Amino acid sequence: MDDLFLKIVDGTIPSKKVLETENVLAFHDIQPAAPVHVLIIPKKYIPSMNAVTEEDLPLIAEIHRVAIEVAKKLGIAESGYRLINNCGPDSGQAVGHLHYHLLGGAKLGALTSISDSHA
């Protein structure tokens, strides 16, 4: 499978890791849309939120726990951050692997578009 994020998980493509658990990886986006822009992905391949099954719900909860830890680690938990999941082509999801964008580090304006062109 030619999955960009699985290549990051296995180290074929380098990344600047922020936090890693057994099931989840958080790393800095290479084209940040905010002063803090971290991608949070499951290490398991799931194409999008629409493919999440009941069996995957503990993994989704873990992703959210990692998001909270990342926000604390990067000093934006108190000032605020945005957690975004794009699902499907009309949302801007260009990378076919479930992932979240964690954005913060500045007062964020109205949400317009955080596409995967930033991945």
TrEMBL record:
InterPro entries: Histidine_triad_HIT, HIT-like, HIT-like_sf
Active-site residues per Swiss-Prot or TrEMBL entry: H99
One Pfam family this sequence matches: HIT
Coiled-coil stretches: none
GO molecular function, one term: catalytic activity
Domain HIT per the UniProt entry, residue ranges: 4-113
Residue ranges of the motif Histidine triad motif: 97-101
Annotated SUPFAM superfamilies: HIT-like (SSF54197)
Full protein name: Histidine triad nucleotide-binding protein
Domain of life: Bacteria
